[in-house]
Design brief:
CATH architecture of the largest domain in chain B: Sandwich
Radius of gyration of chain B: 21 Å
Order of helices and strands of chain A: HEEHHHHHHEHHHHHHHHEHH
Radius of gyration of chain A: 23 Å
CATH superfamily of the largest domain in chain B: Cupredoxins -  blue copper proteins
Number of domains of chain B: 2
Helix content of chain A: 55-70%
Shape of chain B: elongated
CATH topology of chain A: Cytochrome C Oxidase, Chain A
Largest sheet of chain A: 2 strands, antiparallel
Helix content of chain B: 10-25%
Largest sheet of chain B: 6 strands, mixed
Structural class of chain B: alpha+beta
Number of strands of chain B: 11
CATH class of the largest domain in chain B: Mainly Beta
Strand content of chain A: under 5%
Strand content of chain B: 35-45%
Shape of chain A: globular
Oligomer: heterodimer
Structural class of chain A: mainly alpha
Number of helices of chain A: 17
CATH architecture of chain A: Up-down Bundle
CATH superfamily of chain A: Cytochrome c oxidase-like, subunit I domain
């Protein structure tokens, strides 16, 4: 499909800003493994503090990259399937808000005024621009979503009996989840934290802020994941040379995500006070509900890949695994997606461990957690984002890829790195190694009384994995920006791979409209979250004053 | 629906159902049989904000733990083998973690909230308490221990 210059430019900026920031993001990822292994036994390196780097790593990789990409990819899928570009002014306005927010937050973090991590748990207090920047980034992404919704309603009115393309359903569901969950974090930021950070309100209810954050925090991971799911369903079978096993299965999985993504956040608070075991258990069970769409996806994708391999002539029960285009440099997107899926097998299984109520006691806030989520967010999410960024950019610019043979190796290298890294972290977590901790200063420093020799092998494994990941990530950045300086070689157009369905079921109205699902979503949300918020209201005591990360004395009393 | 769901899909749905039922059964079974549970919910009470160890009887203790930047109080808790300890936990400032990895005790310490869990110490030894939530620049220095039947330092 031919697209306007403005649209191309928009996608270009939305893809390249986060990839440029990724240099900072992955640098701080590597640095953490170095500190944690005890190679560095200090608070800061090159004038950037460990916790400042940790904040940059989390915010850039998990919030900025994912949100910018989700919007760019949303624009691309909507435009491609509706054969119509989104409103130009609205799209650029959305981009401007997101970029302004990112610049504000980046300044606050780099200036060392917001080393409060991406969860920004109060009463640690960051600079007001950090909170305002985060809010602008989120609100900016809403603006694009509103425009796509308008386009969808118009398209639906014109085509009432046509099945809405799966990718469009996926994008709209993803941003509906995002809109609902970010309402909570917007409330937290704009009503609780920003006035408090500006000194207008003296104190903040910490448990309430945490509960609002986790209303957002778990749905956030599905917002990261659904663009990858859209690629898995609508592109991967085609790239493998086959068909999607069932189109309806994809729709069912996506609508189940709409129901179960948000009302599960309390499972991040199993170890928190002020919320009853009953409501924690209930949301834990709902979390098992959200595994169902992932099980559906695992089956449907495996069946699609097996079908593709059999068409390529594979035999036997497991022979199909060998007959896929793993190293085809022209079909590199397959490599990125399949690597992500391999990591996600382990990411998904360890996620079920985390959700399993009292098993969470073993792993909560230990290094098991980053071990787990680097096989989800740094697995299928990250690999599909960077693979698709290259893909969209080359198609829209008409340029050929720089170092195509290296490009197709990157995702496998990354996968090996993550597997080693996560093994180290998860093993460490099982023997009590904490996450989010500058271990090198104390626990991994042989001269310190807190030295823990049993964490030496675990942090060393994580360091080895981290180095491999860093090399793969750096190569990716070289390929992405290297592609930009190549000459234009083919006609520029917006192109996406499109999988046909093996079972192309006829349109079932229930799986082609939003209203009934939105109603059920609202009911489950109310049932799951009203008791949680009542718990918090009834069981918490005084509110907390603010603290900067470097001083045990509250900020207000240091001013006097 | 029969026409649109093929035989293999039906089988896999049933298998998934069994798998999830097994997971949920295991959670409930372990909760009953091994008395493993997550922290309890208590309403806020100022009484818990003063760090101390209460001896209820020979085998029953209460610990009022207070986490702050960057220490735990009490930092050394001495109890005899076989004692059952109720840990009540809160924070004087930012959010802290409270992890006794050997006993799977895992709690968050939060200003304005009281956390609680119960644990039995059946073996003598030194149990390290680690803060596993980022609490500012001195986070990695937080330190406390439960000492079970070891020569007391006092």
């Amino acid at each position: 499909m031919q697209v306007s210059k403005s649209f191309k430019r928009l996608i270009f900026w939305e893809l390249s800003i986060p990839v440029a920031l990724l240099t900072l993001g992955i640098y701080h990822g590597l640095m953490q493994t170095i500190y944690r292994a005890g190679v560095l036994k200090q608070a800061a390196f090159a004038k950037l503090d460990y916790y400042q780097g940790l904040t940059l790593h989390g915010v850039i990789n998990a919030i900025v990259l994912t949100t910018f990409f989700a919007v760019a990819f949303g624009h691309a899928t909507i435009a491609f399937y509706f054969k119509k570009e989104p409103n130009r002014k609205v799209a650029w306005f959305s981009f401007a808000l997101m970029t302004t927010g990112t610049v504000m937050a980046a300044w606050a973090m780099l200036a060392g005024k917001a080393s409060v991590l991406y969860t920004f748990y109060p009463p640690l207090k960051g600079h007001p621009l950090f909170y305002l920047g985060a809010a602008l980034l989120i609100v900016g992404s809403w603006v694009s979503f509103f425009d796509w919704s308008r386009m969808y309603v118009k398209w639906k009115n014109e085509n009432p009996n046509t099945k809405t393309p799966l990718a469009v359903i996926g994008t709209l569901i993803n941003f509906t989840i995002w809109f609902v969950c970010t309402l909570a974090v917007a409330y937290e930021v704009l009503v609780l934290l920003l006035p408090w950070s500006l000194g207008w309100t003296p104190t903040v209810n910490v448990t309430l802020a945490r509960t609002l954050f986790w209303f957002f925090g778990h749905a956030l991971v599905y917002f990261w994941l659904l663009p990858a799911y859209i690629m898995f369903y609508t592109m991967l079978p085609k790239l493998a040379g086959g068909k999607l096993y069932s189109d309806l299965a994809g729709r069912i999985a996506l609508f189940l995500f709409l129901l179960f993504s948000v009302p599960v956040g309390v499972h991040h608070q199993y170890s928190d006070p002020s919320i009853t075991q009953g409501i924690k258990f209930f949301q834990g069970m709902l979390t098992f509900g959200v595994t169902i769409p992932s099980f559906i996806t695992a089956f449907t994708l495996a069946a699609s890949l097996e079908y593709a391999a059999r068409r390529r002539g594979s035999k036997g029960w497991f022979g199909w695994m060998k007959k896929l285009p793993y190293l085809d440099a022209d079909n590199y997107l397959f490599a990125y997606l399949i690597s992500g899926l391999i990591l996600f097998i382990f990411g998904g299984l360890t996620g079920i461990v985390n959700a399993s109520y009292q098993l969470n006691n073993v792993v909560h806030n230990t290094s098991w957690m980053p071990g787990h989520f680097h096989m989800t967010v740094a697995g299928p999410v990250f690999l599909s984002i960077i693979g698709m960024s290259t893909y969209l950019y080359t198609k829209l610019s008409g340029r050929k890829i720089f170092m195509p043979k290296v490009n197709v190796i990157i995702p496998y290298m990354w996968t090996i790195g993550v597997l080693i890294f996560s093994t180290g972290l998860m093993w460490g977590g099982l023997i009590g190694e904490p996450r989010r901790t500058n271990l090198g200063m104390t626990y991994l420093n042989p001269d310190h009384e807190l030295f823990r020799p049993d964490w030496v092998p675990t942090t060393t494994l994580a360091l080895i994995g981290g180095i491999i990941m860093f090399i793969a990530g750096t190569l990716y950045i070289v390929v992405f920006f290297g592609t930009m300086v190549r000459k234009k070689q083919h006609a520029a157009a917006l192109e996406l791979p499109v999988s046909d369905a093996y079972h192309d079921e006829k349109r079932i109205p229930l799986f082609d409209k939003f209203k009934p699902w939105l109603v059920v979503m609202a009911i489950i949300l109310v049932v799951a979250y009203v008791p949680a918020f009542l718990n918090v209201k009834n069981n918490t005591g005084p509110k907390a004053p603010g603290f900067t990360p470097d001083n045990p004395v509250p900020i207000e009393s240091t001013k006097k | 629906m029969a026409a649109i769901i093929d035989k293999i899909e039906k089988r896999i749905i049933i298998a998934t159902g069994f798998l999830l039922a097994l997971f949920i059964f295991s959670i409930l079974y372990a909760r009953d049989k091994y008395r493993t549970d997550i922290p309890e919910c208590l309403p806020y009470d100022k009484a818990y904000t003063e760090p101390k160890v209460n001896k209820i009887d020979e085998k029953t203790y209460q610990v009022f733990g207070v986490a702050q930047m960057w220490m735990f109080q009490p930092a050394e808790i001495n109890v005899p083998v076989g004692s059952e300890v109720d840990f009540f936990l809160t924070s004087k400032d930012v959010v802290h973690g409270f992890n006794i990895a050997q006993k799977n005790v895992n709690m968050m310490a939060i200003y304005g909230s009281i956390n609680k869990t119960t644990v039995r110490f059946d073996k003598p030894g030194v149990y390290d308490i680690v803060c596993h939530e980022y609490c500012g620049s001195g986070h990695q220095n937080m330190k406390a221990q439960v000492i079970v039947n070891y020569p007391q330092s006092k």
